[in-house]
Amino acid sequence: MELSQMPELMGLSLLLGLLALVATAAVARGWLRAEEETSGRSAGQKANGCPPDKSLKSKKQKPQQRIRKEKPQQHNFTHRLLAAALKSHSGNITCMDFSSNGKYLATCADDRTVRIWSTKDFLQREHRSMRANVDLDHAILVRFSPDCRAFIVWLANGDTLRVFKMIKRDDGGYTFMATPEDFPKKHKAPIVNIGIADTGKFIMTASSDTTILIWNLKGQVLSTINTNHMNNTYAAISPCSRFVASCGFTPDVKVWEVCFGKKGDFQEVVRAFELKGHSAAVHFFAFSNDSRRMASVSKDGTWKLWDTDVEYKKQQDPYLLRTGHFEEASTMPCRLALSPDAQVLALASGSSIHLYNTRRGEKEESFEQVHGECISDLSFDITGRLLASCGDRAVRLFHNTPGYRAVVEEMQALLKRASNESTRQRLQQQLTQAQEALKNLGALKK
């Protein structure tokens, strides 16, 4: 072998030797790690009775971390007029309803529960609620019965009505029991609203096609109404229980009378009157507590207040009392709530709420980004002092300061015309109470 090849061979030998040492060290480290894991498992087996599997432990941790990341954060909202926030649902609230006696608020959510809240706790620190479970489904709409001893829900997957009876316990609480059978499936399109007449004589359901069904309380269809709106966006029963109204793609609100005989037997549904004046589709409407006023909001960017205390059988049409502007209605769907005395109009678009004085047509309050999702329901309580909204996992309640201001204006005007001292004292008392409420809320205008 030539001497010139010797350095190359020596270098190759050294390289091979180094590679062998590295491989030996790697094998040794693997052997030591295996010994440590074996001893760790045996120690764990002595302590817990079963070997701690690291791979299983990591698999258990990952789902927990994923659930924690996917769980939506509760939307935070503060405002000087926020009276309370009701937070017990674990899913988004889709609908709510105040009982006719003013004692309860029912809410339903996609967490498969309906909660019944005590209204007397609204201004307290703790808000009590009772839970009714909706088995194998969840409710998207809820309505109290007139006697407040039952409520009905619309099932999201079952596409039908279910009735729950409220059975009072000895401790003052309630047990909720669903009736054995749900109502039969009749609608062919998604539902837009349900309602129970305050007389207890009928139930209304309306779907997004052009169908409104009138049912008796046993689940039998009494009448079918074709609204001819192209599609329905909303329908409701009037508080007086005489009328059913609907709105949709057409620029009007149509009203029917549901007629019963003197003995309480159903007779017919007849066309009563229409609210005509909008130039585009109507998003929503609402009745005042005495059914003598109605309000509507349209895609034409306006809201309107109507006098519906008319003799429609003599062809008398409702009177338009006020038109206000609400530009948001021209670009997105809106909801509307009318205070029981028709003095205040609440409009919701997206996640914001705006309050208007219906006498002057002026906006008086605005609440921006009230919920983490679009507002799904909006309603005044039966006293008109509070406005409730929902759109995520909470119900938020606001003091109705425009309502107090309207009372102040009305009482001041009536005092000037008061003819006797007793009337003057009664009006002065109501005026003082409204002014004190505004002062306590920091909303009294100087």
UniProtKB/TrEMBL annotation:
GO MF term set: phosphoprotein binding; protein kinase binding; translation initiation factor binding
Gene: TBL2
One family name in Pfam for this protein: WD40
Single GO cellular component term: endoplasmic reticulum
Entry annotated with the keyword Electron transport: no
Keywords: Coiled coil, Isopeptide bond, Phosphoprotein, Repeat, Signal, Ubl conjugation, WD repeat
Protein name per the record: Transducin beta-like protein 2
Region feature (Disordered): 35-74
WD repeats (start-end): 86-118, 184-218, 275-307
Database matches in PANTHER family: TRANSDUCIN BETA-LIKE PROTEIN 2
Signal peptide boundaries: 1-30
Coiled-coil ranges (or none): 408-444
Entry annotated with the keyword Coiled coil: yes
UniProt biased composition (Basic residues): 57-69
Source organism of the structure: Capra hircus (Goat)
Matching InterPro entries: WBSCR13, WD40/YVTN_repeat-like_dom_sf, WD40_PAC1, WD40_repeat_CS, WD40_repeat_dom_sf, WD40_rpt
Biological process, per Gene Ontology: cellular response to glucose starvation; cellular response to hypoxia; endoplasmic reticulum unfolded protein response
